[in-house]
Amino acid sequence: MLQNVIIGQYYPASSPLHRMDSRSKLIAAFFYLFIVFLANSWVTYGLLVAFTAVTITLSKVPLRFLYKGLKPILILVVFTMLLHVFLTKEGELLYKAGFLEIYEGGIIQGVFIAMRLLLLVLMTSLLTLTTTPIDITDGLEHLLGPLKKWKLPVHEFALMMSISLRFIPTLLQETEKIMKAQMARGADFTSGPIKERAKAFVPLLVPLFVSSFKRAEELALAMEARGYRGGEGRTRLRALEWHKRDTFALLLLLLLTASLLLLRS
Amino acid sequence: MENIITVKDVTFFYPGEEIPTLKGVTLDVHKGEWLSIVGHNGSGKSTLAKMLNGLLLPNEGAVYVSSYTTERPDDIWEVRRQVGMVFQNPDNQFVGTSVQDDIAFGLENFGVPRDEMVKRISESVERVGMEAFLNQEPHQLSGGQKQRVAIAGILAQKPSVIVLDEATSMLDPIGRIEVIETVRELNQKEGITVISITHDLEEALSADRVVVMKMGEKAAEGIPEDIFQQRELLKSAGLDLPFSLKLSEALRQQGVELDKSYLTQEELVNALWKLA
Questions:
Q1: A127 close to B (CB below 8 A)
Q2: Residues B46 and B147 both lie in one domain
Q3: Does B108 sit within 8 Å of A225, measured CB to CB?
Q4: Rounded mean pLDDT of B7-17?
Q5: Where are the bilayer-spanning segments (chain A) (predicted)?
Q6: Which pairing describes strands B34-39 and B209-214: parallel, antiparallel, or unpaired?
Q7: CB contact, 8 Å: A132 with chain B?
Q8: Tell me, what DSSP letter sits at residue B262?
Q9: Domain of B60: which CATH number?
Q10: Model confidence at A3, in pLDDT bands (50, 70, 90)?
């Protein structure tokens, strides 16, 4: 079971998007979060949809992976859409049944909001689908680097992230081992009422916690033995490389922003 | 012979404890030797190991590593670069997300420039025979392989001493041989000093010198042949005699005419087949 665990939702492939620097992808995704709100007409939304569609094609990520990421928020999308359909009272009245009134403006508004949500989620999941968690961590550490001046522990935060990522498979293996050990003693994790099942997890979690603390302590000692003394004066093996395509991608995004500003009504 | 580490009259208490864990321990480690420190649980051997690179500091006495000492805070980092340490649990000392990231960890700490880092990493993985695993993640490696990566991480720092703190006790027999052979080669070919902390006397057999720890004190020190003749001492230190030694003794008691007790299986076999 553990061989198949994918950390995060990274989809390994070789695409222009995969090859982009994690910093430019982070900046782009963040920027995109704001410009989505600029769109307010069919033309501007069309432009955003086209841009997103091209990006998805470039990423070589299969659509069913994207769908998997969208599934949890689909209910939310439908719900907000309906809310807008029923509550916006603008434009022509299209349908009336008792207290229920649907206006033309409501339908348009509902579709726009649904598109906005979908576009946001699609773009952010593209970031995690095409960038490994460790690259995202590196990118964040670089981008947030200037905040060190204000005593923000950026390096410590990044190291914490990368150590957590490194220990996920180890802890999963350990969980499996403890589970088997408890099952051999008659523990039942899979049947019974929810309350009983939740209780069954206590003898799994307690040893896991205890051993995690022990691991943390030993790891800290090993790190110290290897000369760790915080972020100051540290060099790094992982190098991020900013290519022309990264600058190009960001310029493209600026162009999109400009067109949105011009075309919005 | 030139000393690489000198432990001078070291006494150490863990905070809040009345009885010292180390009582006036004095020890010389010669350059290029393989020194085994053996002892039962609680004999202070691991505490002694942690004194050697300043992870713990003595309450009394001092530890010198070549011209540095753990007394001076400025020296600690150089001491830790020179004295690399492999711990017991292979998982809990693997910091990086892949083999090369882990080897780089120590180098990053010491501010080695990136180009130099890349060079040293490829050089040190070769020395432990892990060059095919450079991009592997820790959960894909066996315990023995992880320990070899730990050794590579130390080698990249260009150390003079490698301390194995029970580094083979959690490994299967194959992993144990893997690690011991790797370290032996480094010891013999490159003259790196090895200090191995263990409760396994079989492992101590191949050392140049053995130190026996008992209740926080140095109970004996000498070449393995001499140490292993002192059966009473080893027993009182809570140590289990090597199998070939026990066997040759049992044989002698049964009236088999062996002229002495043999330390290794090979010696014993050679003596046995020559018997008429």
A1: no
A2: yes
A3: no
A4: 91
A5: 29-58, 70-87, 107-129, 246-263
A6: parallel
A7: no
A8: -
A9: 3.40.50.300
A10: very low
Sign of CA dihedral B136, B137, B138, B142: negative
Asked if residue B148 and residue B93 are part of one domain, the reply reads yes
Please tell me the total count of domains within chain B.
Answer: 2
Range of the domain at B45: 3-240
- Say which residues have a Cβ less than 8 Å from residue B237's Cβ, sequence separation at least 6: B38, B39, B40, B43, B212, B213, B214, B219
The answer to whether the beta carbons of residues A226 and B55 sit under 8 Å apart is: no
A237 and B113: CB-CB below 8 Å? no
Beta strand spans in chain A (E): 93-97, 100-103
pLDDT tens-digit map of B139-153: 889 999 999 999 999
The b/e string for B160-194 (b: 16+ C-beta within 10 A; e otherwise) is bbbbbbbbbebbeeebbebbbebbeebbeeeebbb
Edge-to-edge strand list for the sheet holding B161-165: B83-86, B161-165, B193-198, B34-39, B209-214, B217-222
B160: left (phi over 0), alpha (psi -120 to 50) or beta: alpha
Query: Using the beta-carbon criterion (under 8 Å), do A225 and B139 form an inter-chain contact?
Result: no
CA B40 to mean position of chain CA atoms: 15
Q: What is the pLDDT of residues A4-52, one digit of tens each?
A: 444 457 888 888 888 999 999 999 999 999 999 998 889 999 999 999 9
Question: What is the C-alpha to C-alpha distance for residues A88 and B29, in angstroms, rounded to an integer?
Answer: 84
Q: The pTM is what?
A: 0.81
In angstroms, the CA A69 to CA A64 distance is: 9
Cα gap B23→B18, rounded to integer Å = 12
- When scoring B53, B55, B87, B105 by the number of chain A Cβ atoms within 10 A, the one with the most, hence best to mutate, is B105
User: B259 and B172 in one domain?
Assistant: no
Q: Which residues of A touch B117 (CB under 8 A)?
A: 235, 237
Question: From CA A153, how far away is CA A167, in angstroms rounded?
Answer: 21
Residue B185 to chain A, least CA–CA distance (Å): 22
Q: Do A225 and B117 touch (CB under 8 A)?
A: no
Of A173, A222, A236, the CB nearest to B92: A222
CA separation for the pair A222, B78 (Å, rounded)? 16
B178 shares its domain with B269 = no
CB spacing of A229 vs B104 below 8 angstroms: no
User: A230: which 2 tokens?
Assistant: 């915080």
- The full set of domain ranges for chain A reads 2-131+241-263, 146-225
From first CA to last CA, the distance across chain A in angstroms is 53
* Tokens of residue B173, six digits: 């027999």
